[in-house]
Amino acid sequence: MPVPDRYRRYEDAWHRAVETVHHRRLTDTLVKRQMMDVAERYNNAIVFPLHDVEGEPEFPALAAQIISDAVDGFATRANDTLPSLWAPAVDPTAQSHRRRAELRKEAWGATYYESHLPLRLAKGYRQLYGYGTFCLFVEPDHEAKRARIVTRDPMLTYPEPMGTDEIRAPRDIAFVYGRSPQHLKALYPEVAEFIDRHTTSDDDLWDVLEWQDAEHCFIGILGKRATQSYLRRYSATGQVLYGDHSMDQSFLLRAYPNRAGMVTAVCPAAVTLDRMIATVSRIIPHTDVLNKLAALDFIASEKAVFPHLVVLGENGQEPEIVGGQFHDGRTGKVNLVQNARTVQTLNLAPGPQTQVQMSNLERAARLSSGNPAVFQGESTGSIRSGQTVTQLASYSVDPRLKEAHRIIGYALEVINEAVAATELGYWPRRKYTVFSGWEGTNRHVTYRPVDIWTETRKSVVAYPMPGMDAQNATVAIAALNQARMLSRRTGMAKHPLVDNPDAEERALIEEALDDAIVMSGVQLVASGQMAWTDLARVRELVREGKMIEDAIAQAQQEAQERQATVAQGPIAPDQVLPPGAMPGLNAPEAGGQMALPPAEQGAPPSNPEQFEQVIAALMAAPPGGGPAGG
User: Full-prediction pTM beyond 0.90?
Assistant: First the structure.
């Protein structure tokens, strides 16, 4: 196993890593084979061999894609909600501790946002259900100088063996993947001579090892695939049992200390009885038989559409077609047959039990995988209520969802610690200004890793309502609020669609006050206490983009200026009223407009003769108001 001189101090650790990986690859053969079986059927990349009949085509999976439906249905439902993140303060009574705890939460949220965590979780849920495990890995992004969360393929991952109920960072982990000779020589020029010495074709594939433990990080070559990688076998201690070559095809390419001080990965597994196994791998025998029956049923149906023709000869003679060519009936030509007693067809329709057997197999597979037919829009029986269908679907998967949510929550707590260790180990005093876009914290935050990660790296990640999607959570929270068993504020904090409960609570209060302001304005106009032109002015200002309180304040200022104009004093008879003070369409004196002057009355008679005539007329009137001369 060649080791460059500059990495000579890592030689023993590299040798132990290579031997450990070879041993794990040997013992994990069955688990990886099960993962490959699931992946082939999920991608519909498998054909089913039938009876060896000349000219019979190969058939892909023709039945319902139960495995892919089960994996995708589980993952999309589980990822319908996102987990909540809490960063507890070391001393909750100290303001500085609470502030640093808030910064830790926002820094982790920024890493979630930059790493596109919802998409990572979508893939992780698919791997958890399809493979029985998944892997999240924190890698240092040296270009952006920050930690980044990525997913790794479980089929290429070899962590420290752990129990299915252990969720922690492994003590060491290895990733093995294939690379072409051209790729390796272009990326690592120093290995070109070594590869050329062992490569016989450009199509050769070399296994690359990426190793990490608490002290070291290695990148090297395990060997050329199909030789050392698979034909060699090792004992439990890593010693070679048999093989065709010595371990001379391993080559250390890069070695450097692990500044994080821990393995920045987590590979939890689905909780099982005794060993790791995926849920959908149990139904592979069902789906294989189902697809084989579907292919045979298709062939039988095709033969029923185009049946075989049989010609029975007369008196033992061999029938012959006149002209030597059989014409297709769609051409309209007549076929003449001699020495024939009768011509008939062999109608071989598919047996009725085939469909029954296929339905039984599909039902068994769906029940075993927790993927009822209702997920694909199919319902049986006399169900008429949509709520009944929803409940039936929920009962089938909620326990699995709840367990998966808890696994993801515990795994993200380990990832948070790895993020903190990576930033603190590689860039401890770098000043970060990042966007924290998780759980409604839509703002930038500034911090230094040494200031916030030193005192603690602990966090709590959990789904507020594990096992429920957004629709079920809405129904449950509304029922608890109605029963006065849960406050509205707590309900908003637990709802998956509410990113920022504090902001939503403020928005609800503002909306309620806006509604009250609008109703008050309408009532004031209806009672005549407010000019409806003033209300129209408020609406105009709101349309221009002002907040309703600013619009009311401006309309109030304009009304006060108008009222000040009216209050300057009485209007002389020969003085013209200002247009702004006239009531216009409003009622007089509404909104500060001036009241209309009273109608001008006739002046009393000033002529003495006229005055005497009026007095005489009044004196001549009889008492009691009766007619004169009466």
Answer: no
